[in-house]
Amino acid sequence: MFLTIIITVLITAVVAIGVYILISRIVLKNKAEQIIKNAETEGENIKKDKIIQAKEKFLQLKSEHEAYINEKNSQIQQAESRLKQRENQLNQQNAELGRKQKELEASKETVKSKFEAIDKKQEEYEKLREQAISKLEEVAGMSAADAKNQLVEQMKAEAKTQAMGYINDTMDEARLNASKEAKRIVINTIQRIAPEVAIENAVTVFNIDNDEIKGRIIGREGRNIRALEAATEVELVVDDTPEAILISSFDPVRREVARLALHQLVADGRIHPARIEEVVTKVKKQLEEEILETGKRTCIDLGIHGLNIELVKLIGRMKYRSSYGQNLLQHSREVANICAVMAAELGLNAKAAKRAGLLHDIGKVSEEDHELPHALLGMKLAEEYKEKPEICNAIGAHHEEIEMTSLIAPLVMVGDAISGARPGARREVIESYIKRLKDMEDLALAYPGVTKTYAIQAGRELRVIVGADQVSDAQVESLSLDIARKIQDEMTYPGQVKVTVIRETRAVAFAK
Q1: 343 near 325, Cβ under 8 Å?
Q2: Same-domain status, 187 and 334
Q3: pLDDT score recorded for residue 171
Q4: Is 8 within a domain?
Q5: Are residues 410 and 485 in the same domain?
Q6: What is the domain extent for residue 43?
Q7: What is the reported pTM?
Q8: Last-in-domain residue among 427, 443, 459
């Protein structure tokens, strides 16, 4: 009985499960069909929307294309209109050119006929002119060419006389305007500076008490003198000159080292190669310190500050250099003071002018780059040690080797000339001095009409005497200018040369 109930329950459960599965399949099938139907409906809707969008896009593109076509058509029509207008204008211009060409041909014929008439009249005029010239030559007794040459020469002489008068008037006017002020400034400057005329000469002779010291200086087999020459880089000349030894070297600093070393060696009495090297080394060090001290003292005396220490050393070395017998340091100090005074008179920077004047010749004491002129070398050194551009330009331009770009440059050039040209400042080799004066006299004597020439005032004035029967008063002015210009072009001289031409007429009679 119990088993039957269990079997019945199992059968009922199986049947229920089958029914549930069947019903689930029917429900799922209906749901799937509904989903498919919804998807198809939605696809149709999307398809319709895309078709509508495509149609709208097509209509938009079509309208844009039509607008573009219409715009291009409008532009083509406008271009055709412009071409037609241009064509009409060209046709009109062509018609105008044709008309003008016809008028030009007609006027050409007219001008041709006029020129033919002018040529005939010209031929008639030439015949009449030749006849008139022939009659004038017969009356005057002179050919036309001779008369023309005579007239030209007369006009040249008159023009030259008038030009010389104009030049003299202009020069007189310039002198009236500039000479007084220039003289005042220069004379005031020279009076305020007033340096000593005496100059310091380079030492080349070492004096000794007796000739016995010469043997000790020479040493055994000359070893002492060789050691001394090698250490000081000078040449010692020990000859028959009593109580003197000559020191020969192009460098005055080396000569000074040799002089001081000899002085200490002779005073000490111990003269041998080791002692010589020791003394020379000590003297060189002392001299370098003295050079630096001299440069510092010079800068302090002149009130110049802020110089590079190497420039200060170069200033100190100037003490042992000379130019034409003039001590270079004294010359540079003098130029510095002259430049400062003139700058103050002209309202310029006196301190800058003084600085440039002191440094203008530092190229002469430099041991580098001797191929450059001393002015350009000095400018290079000043630039290297950070001096101002106006100072560098004044140093480089004081011999006019470069263009002057600052206002103090001409002051340095003038100050250098004043310092070197004053009486007693420099000495000149007598032979070259006499030769310069003779060349100046011969140059003027070569001109026609000059009878005598005299160079006076140490070559600063040239007196030229001309024959009164060969040179007229009008030609005297021209002759003085020609001689001055030739001296300026062909000769080298300090300062300026005044050329004075003298024409004198003498009448001599005797009472008997």
Answers
A1: no
A2: yes
A3: 62
A4: yes
A5: no
A6: 1-96
A7: 0.46
A8: 427
Q: How many domains does the chain have?
A: 4
Angle, vertex CA 376, rays to CA 370 and CA 381, nearest 5: 80
Per-residue burial over 419-433, b = 16 or more CB atoms within 10 Å of its CB, e = otherwise: bbebeebbeeeeeee
pLDDT for the residue 419 = 77
**440 and 417 co-located in one domain:** no
| Eight-state DSSP code of residue 203 | P
Strand order from edge to edge, sheet including 244-248: 205-207, 244-248, 235-237
CB 262, CB 217: distance < 8 Å: yes
Asked if 61 and 79 sit in the same domain, the reply is: yes
Rounded to the nearest 5 percent, the helix, strand and coil shares of the chain are 70, 5, 20
Of residues 380, 404, 377, the one with CA closest to residue 393: 404
d(CA 218, CA 224): 5
Residue ranges in the chain modelled with pLDDT below 50: 191-192, 194-203, 428-429
Residues 478 and 344 in one domain: no
Number of H helices and number of E strands within the chain? 14, 8
Could you tell me the CA-to-CA distances from 470 to 150, 282, 307, 388, 505 in Å, in that order? Answer: 20, 74, 63, 58, 11
Alpha-carbon distances of 189 from 247, 350, 357, 419, rounded to whole Å? 39, 13, 14, 11
Q: What is the reported pLDDT for 319?
A: 84
Question: Smallest Cα–Cα separation from 271: which of 342, 213, 207?
Answer: 213
CA–CA separation, 289 and 492 (whole Å)? 40
State the residue for tokens 């050079």. 291
R_g of the chain, CA atoms, integer Å: 55
Domain at 443, CATH number: 3.30.300.30
- The DSSP H or E segment spanning 465 is strand 461-466
Are 193 and 329 members of one domain? yes
